[in-house]
Amino acid sequence: MVTEADHPVPRNHSEALIMRYDIAVIGNDEAAFEMMALAAGADRRTVAILPEVRHSAWFAGQALRRLIADLLVDCTVPRRRLFLRAGRPQLLRALFSAAIVEQIREQMHVLQQRGVDVILGEASFRSECELQVTGGDGRPAQSLWARHIVIGTGVRRTAMHRPLGVTPFHRPETLFAGRHLPKSVCILGGSDFGAGLAALLALFGVETRLVAREDNSSVMLELASSAGVQIGLHPADIGLPSLAAQNSAPLVHIVDCRRVLGFSDRLNLKAINVEPDENGQLWCASSFETWCSGVFGIGGIVGFSPDSSLHASVQAERIMNRVTHAVSRPHLLDGFARCTAASSMDVTAATACTATTDAAAATNATGAAATTGAAATTSAAATTTAAGKRSPRSRRVVQK
């Protein structure tokens, strides 16, 4: 399990006012809510940071599902005529915004009942354990510290790039701009978000067609069909020519929702040495942990992971298992710095040891030389003494 030694808690007076949590979850993707519920159920102090403006495609799809269901409940002939007369981009934008606000209130109520703290605003990293949350309406920025941070901001739907010289498709947000709704619209892909958008337009008198190749059994597609949307697997199924043509269906307002882009551009991931891919998504390990220890990705924001195809609840369980049984994994640069420092210490110690050995060897050599000289002196003295002790006969022979 990760301890405070791995991610130290702020100690000085200025940082003592920072709110501290075990787990912080950023975003309103489906998997993010699964992670919040699981963390709260495991008695972890959890905070949820929910965006006010940049909502995930899943969250927007849930709000559209609620809105379409409410509009279809009592869709009588007089009410249908009222929709046809009042259909304006401003009205659709207001209805969609109200549905988003209602969805946020409901999710906040559920999370607070489970003991999860909720903060509204945009989060950005200051370090691997510290976040800054900036809210709208002039609210001051808040700072918080969390031992583990899970990024679940999700993705948004937008148009794919088309070759140079080919008329580009429209993005979804263009439907809410201008003063009048288009007469005929074709929406490409988008899963529940695209189906909900098509159903909303159809209810307000727009001839709407939907090319849905992802999931033909979803509840949202059934609602779209009830709203009068023509649904097909291919443009030819709904009376459109090939979309690869340069000016395919010039009288139809084609809205492309097939491309996904991750909401990661405002997270300041450079502060934790994490870089998203060209689609703004994260590359994670099997436990959904990023290159930064203690920071995870979950849901649509994950561009690559060996387990990215798992259900949102299973992804949350994988992360929770990693959090509970985590083994400290130092950052690569920190590990390199420690190895370099250890190598330097080893070289210094080896140099000192070599110098000590050389000095000892020199001392031993000096001692040996002194011992040799003493031995020579002793031998000479012994020779002299022996000569002095010769017998008288020997001396006489020497004298002769």
Cα gyration radius (Å): 38 Å
Secondary structure tally, helices: 9
What is the string of helix and strand elements? EHEHHHEEEEEEHEHEEEEEEHHH
Share of residues in strands: 15-25%
Helix content: 40-55%
Unreliable runs: 1-7, 9-16, 380-400
The largest pleated sheet is described as: 7 strands, mixed
Whole-number mean pLDDT: 80
Give the beta-strand count.
15
The end-to-end span amounts to 103 Å
Alpha-beta classification: alpha/beta
Shape: globular
Task: Tell me about this structure.
With 400 residues, the chain is an alpha/beta fold. The chain has nine helices and 15 strands. Residues 1-7, 9-16 and 380-400 have low confidence and may be disordered.
Which structural traits does this protein have?
400 residues; 9 helices; disordered N terminus; disordered C terminus; alpha/beta
Give the topology, please:
Blueprint: E1 19-26, H1 30-41, E2 46-50, H2 57-73, H3 77-86, H4 89-113, E3 117-120, E4 122-125, E5 130-134, E6 142-151, E7 155-158, E8 184-188, H5 191-203, E9 207-211, H6 219-227, E10 230-232, E11 253-256, E12 259-262, E13 282-283, E14 295-297, E15 302-304, H7 312-324, H8 332-388, H9 392-399
Parallel strand pairs: 1-2, 1-6, 2-3, 6-14, 8-9, 8-11, 9-10, 13-15
Antiparallel strand pairs: 4-5, 5-6, 7-12
Helix pairs in contact: 1-7, 2-4, 2-5, 2-6, 5-6
Question: Care to give the gist of this entry?
Answer:
This protein has about 400 residues and is of the alpha/beta class.
